Amino acid sequence: MEVKEQISRWRLILGQESDKRLSEMTDMTLTQEQDLMDQALASIYNRTELGGFGSPNGSRGAGRGPSNPQISRWLGDVRTLFDKELVTVIQNDAVTRCGLKQLLFEPELLENMEPDIGLASTILMLKDQIPKRSKESVREFIKKIVEEINKLLEQDIRRAVTAAVNKRKHSPIPSASAMDFKMTINRNLKHYNPELKTIVPEHFYFFDRTSTTAANKWTIILDIDQSGSMGESVIYSSIISCILASMASIKTRIVAFDTNIVDLTEKSDDPVDLLFGFQLGGGTDINKSIAYCEQFIENPAKTLFFLISDLEEGGNRAGLLRRISDMKESGVTVISLLAIADGGRPYYDAQTAQKLAGLGVPCFACTPELLPTLLEKALKGQDLSQFEKLRK
To answer: Model confidence over 269-297: pLDDT tens digits?
Structure first.
């Protein structure tokens, strides 16, 4: 890279205040495209009189009325000038640095926003403030993110469950209606009788029909913390919950909690509806939510319980640990999925996580891409202590 180009890039990073000093190093001028980039970045990062969004004199702040078209044009410029990854960073900075939260619900603004899970978390936290004119635009914005994550995860989750919950198990009990013809033929090809021109099987294989009954289905319970710190994890959890709920081979329960409990299982047909069922914010009473979920444990050996939380217990922590211990001793597979943000950075109460680990409960800051593997291992009853090595 030439020195002149390097200096131009530094100029874009440092802003207009660096013009004089950088010009002393070389004859530095920005191209037309770089000049547009500079103007777009200055709108949120420049602290000089060129200001940001708002009034014509450049004062900081969101502004009202005339500023909305300006912001929409700015978003269009940003999406044209920068890579997608940078666009999400810049628009999130615009929201947090320039006080644009009250403008997030302008329909024309949302149409220009790049789908981003962090921004979606902010919108869901403010969903009770959404004006009527903007509700459809907000749903469409959230729907775009849901569709992207669904494409990323659905096939792998379905494959993981299908591989683990094997409906093709065999039984020694003969049953003409349960005959596995394909395996019976394949395993007996060597017994083909040329005179009879047919296979004479020495062993027959039959499907185990009992494995498909309701009593033998796996139950997966997702107990999801909806306190204010859980935005990104709630979005991923909702989409994963809906994928699992759509599979007839398992039973899925979806419970949301802060200091109150909401059973969202009936909303699992639509991940967007499910997301809007969450009330992000408030405190945390994990013990209370676990007590509620215990009623759904019919067959402990066939129950997988996910506690999705930052483990910041505001209720009875001793009670929480006791209930988890009793649940494990009964035969339930218990996994604690820790809160994640910023594409996988974990945050959680280390002391509670350590006590859960002491009870033999694996605590993972598991990114969504790895969840299908974790799910398959858990349903197969494999040792999850090795999962940490897999993640590395």
So the answer is: 888 888 888 887 778 899 999 999 999 99
For the chain, which residues make up each domain, given as ranges? 3-134, 152-164+217-391, 170-211
Q: What pTM value is reported for the model?
A: 0.66
Q: CATH assignment of 152-164+217-391, given 3.40.50.410, 1.10.10.10, 3.40.50.12780, 3.40.50.1820?
A: 3.40.50.410
Amino acid at the residue 378: A
Buried b (16+ CB within 10 A) or exposed e, 214-233: eeebbbbbbbbbbbbbbbbb
At 168 the three-state DSSP class reads coil
What 354-362 contacts at long range (C-beta under 8 Å, 24+ apart), as own/partner pairs, is 355/321, 356/311, 356/321, 356/324, 359/321, 359/324, 359/325, 359/328, 360/328, 361/324, 361/328, 361/334, 361/335, 361/336, 362/335, 362/336, 362/387
Exposed, middle or buried by CB within 10 Å (0-12, 13-18, 19+), for 263? middle
Q: What are phi and psi of 349, to 5 degrees?
A: -80, 110
The span from the CA of 339 to the CA of 262, in Å, is 19
